[in-house]
Write a structure and sequence with these properties.
CATH superfamily of one domain: NADP-dependent oxidoreductase domain
Structural class: alpha/beta
Number of helices: 12
Number of strands: 12
Length: 346
């Protein structure tokens, strides 16, 4: 038998790396799993022509995922219910994985369970054993993969004992269908209860991260969770870290905001206070002075906060993805961080 051809590409790679293609990685919680500093939120992926509410069509999504691999943006976050409970975000990732099977090992793939999906009865929502198992199976089918790297509880379920939900996850981990658990939209009290119960069950059930809404302009949607994450060794993975696009160049001039801009289309831009718009303009001035994009500067600042894990901003284009990814390697000076702290709320 002929010997295997050596992988010469790995000759000069150290035994353990903490970056990939220049993108720094950071550990998630107290686990051994590392996520790219800048990941990719995929809620916009879908089939806009069907009315699913998506903003990026299959061709655009594929181009973004292709470029994400080149940039080392290898933590991909989705959910079964994204885009009108269609499952279409998962389907487009699944299409890409099927076309690029050799890249599956490089992607840290995360999806969510809780919301009504894949059925119409009361058993097809929540965090019951039945629902979690059926949800994971359906997500795996759409994603065209055999396992999930991270399963998020999309929100807390006050009607189901956490012991039942956590024990179900442990079973899925043992079966190789799920590798790590995380939670989303949990309050500090709910996260604390989850951590307490998981300690009495198994390390396999201890959440490695929490995904709650946070941006430096508005702070936490559920106060106190970031501090708890810092104390307990749980990574905080914020969603909407750019305040639904407000913390980008797009909104620096309110007179130019119009159709096609998310906040305008959703009818929320007119309700933003002048104080917050002034903060955005000041952020724009700092970004211009420091020769960096507003979105890049914002994400780089968030990465300096205690307890922060992977950032998962969505991207509407390859160019936007590139701006976001640049935050992973942007090193802010102490003076710059101090200036941003004065500008933003915590």
């Amino acid at each position: 038998m002929d010997p295997l051809t050596p992988n010469t590409d790995l000759y000069n790679v150290p035994y353990q790396a903490h970056d990939y293609r220049g993108m720094p990685y950071r550990y998630l919680g107290r686990s051994g799993l590392q996520g790219a500093a800048i990941g990719l939120g995929t809620w916009k992926f879908g089939f806009p022509d069907t009315g699913d509410g998506a903003r990026i069509d299959p061709e655009g999504a594929a181009a973004i995922m292709d470029r994400a691999c080149e940039l080392g943006v290898m933590f991909w976050d989705t959910a079964n219910r994204y885009n009108a409970a269609s499952g279409n975000s998962e389907r487009l990732i699944g299409r890409w994985l099927a076309a690029n099977p050799q890249r599956r090992r490089d992607v840290v793939l995360a999806t969510k369970t809780h919301g009504g999906m894949d059925g119409w009865t009361p058993n097809h929502a929540g965090l019951s054993r039945l629902q979690i198992i059926e949800s994971v199976k359906a997500s795996l089918e759409r994603l065209q993969t055999d396992y999930l790297d991270v399963l998020w509880f999309h929100r807390f379920d006050e009607n189901v004992p956490l012991e039942e939900s956590l024990e179900t996850v442990e079973d899925l981990v043992r079966q190789g269908l799920v590798r790590y658990l995380a939670v989303s939209n949990f309050s500090a009290a709910q996260l604390g209860e989850c951590l307490r119960i998981s300690e009495s069950l198994s390390r396999r059930t201890r959440p490695i991260a929490v995904q709650n809404r946070f941006d430096p302009l508005n702070g936490e949607s559920l106060p106190g969770v970031l501090d708890l994450c810092t104390r307990e060794g749980v990574s905080f993975v914020p969603y909407s870290p750019l305040a639904q696009g407000l913390l980008t160049e797009r909104y620096l001039d309110p007179d130019k905001v119009g159709p096609g801009d998310r906040l305008f289309d959703e009818g929320t831009f007119s309700g933003i206070s002048e104080e917050k718009l002034a903060t955005v303009r000041r952020l724009g001035e700092l970004a211009k002075e420091w020769e960096v994009k507003v979105s890049t500067l914002t994400l780089a600042y968030i990465l300096t906060l205690d307890g922060m894990g992977t950032q998962i901003p969505s991207s509407s284009s390859v160019a936007q993805l590139e701006d976001n990814a640049a935050a992973g390697t942007l090193e802010l000076t102490e003076e710059q961080v101090a200036a941003l702290k004065e500008l933003f709320v915590r």
